[in-house]
Design goal:
Layout: H1 3-15, H2 35-49, H3 53-71, H4 73-77, H5 82-101
Helix pairs in contact: 1-2, 1-3
Amino acid sequence: MIGMIQKVLLSLVEEHGGSELKAGTSFRIHTDYPDEQVHALFEASQAEIGWTRAQLMEHYAVHFIQYAESVFPRFFKMSSGVQDFLVRQPVIHASFAAGLTGQSVV
């Protein structure tokens, strides 16, 4: 998974008082990381904050959207509504994938 997932998660953990996971850890939002590492980070975050899995995912979803809107405002502004935004998702994800592989999106 792209490092944006981890970056947002660590920001959420730090915001809610967890600090053990943050120390010396950084992720690049455009770099692809092993899925196993991401799953382990979610488990460690859950333990660090003391939330249930459902609570962590609820808070993560809100935090992710806030982060995405601040970093990629154009993706949100160019959509007329939720359905239009969701229709654009394949192109947005293809753009990220092309960036990871150095290919262009056609």
